[in-house]
Design a protein that fits this description.
The chain is mainly α. 78% of the residues lie in helices and 5% in strands. The structure holds zinc ion (ZN).
Length: 243
């Protein structure tokens, strides 16, 4: 391969890698926020379930207070029963006692019902706690991976100027100018491979003679449509093509 063409390909690879690194750095805050939101969602579910359990416990304490109030009424009725003088009064107090007993039964049924629901809620809370702990591990790992990616990307951007200087040292200045103009005007791609007789960047079919020349990788040839510098990918040719 023509040495200048090889340098241009390496320069293009550097530009592409740095572009990708800049995008990764830009995307990092949003990705980190998405991870935090994912964790927050699980924590919110757990908090809501704990809130429901606390409500249940408060409701149960109120029902127990109600039972105590009815029981003290019942005690008073039983005392009254000793003091009644007429049959009519006796029956009236008896009916109050029956009413109070029925109310206690009803309140105790509700307490029992609430306890069963609280058991289910407690089991839910245990499950949610386990899930949250697992998510914390997964999200923590994901966050570390993101940070490592970002640090690698920063390193790539930081070393860009030096890497580029080393690559362009031996390039003729006019060629470097062409490269820089193309990369600015052609969405970051100044040097592109040909595929199946076409420019891989703009997809225009090359004239057969031009394609044959490109395949040799011995001359600097620009696409007649997009002006990008073309090369024939040697490694792709060496490996067997999928049929
Ligand atoms: Zn083209």
């Amino acid at each position: 391969m023509l040495p200048d063409l090889e340098r241009l390909i390496r320069l293009q690879e550097l530009e592409t890698a740095v572009d990708r690194a800049r995008l990764a750095i830009e995307a990092f805050p949003a990705q980190r926020a998405a991870l935090a939101a994912r964790l927050g969602e699980h924590a919110g579910r757990l908090e809501a379930a704990e809130g429901r359990l606390a409500e249940h416990r408060a409701a149960r304490r109120n029902l127990e207070k109600d039972v105590a109030a009815v029981q003290s009424r019942l005690t008073r009725f039983k005392d009254q029963l000793m003091a009644v003088k007429t049959n009519k009064e006796y029956h009236a107090v008896q009916s109050e006692i029956a009413g109070a007993n029925a109310e206690i039964q009803r309140l105790e049924d509700r307490i029992l019902e609430g306890m069963l629901e609280a058991d289910e809620l407690s089991a839910d809370i245990d499950r949610l706690r386990t899930t949250l702990a697992e998510e914390e591990t997964v999200v923590g790992e994901e966050q570390r991976r993101l940070e490592q990616d970002r640090d690698r990307s920063r390193g790539r951007v930081d070393s860009y100027a030096g890497d580029r200087a080393a690559l362009v040292a031996d390039l003729p200045p006019a060629l470097l100018d062409t490269f820089d103009i193309l990369i600015r005007g052609r969405r970051g791609i100044a040097v592109g491979a040909v595929h199946d007789g076409r420019c891989g960047s703009c997809q225009v079919r090359l004239r057969p003679q031009l394609y044959n020349d490109v395949r040799l990788n011995q001359r600097l040839i620009q696409c007649e449509s997009c002006r990008r510098i073309l090369y024939y990918p040697i490694e792709a040719d060496a490996s067997p093509r999928p049929s």
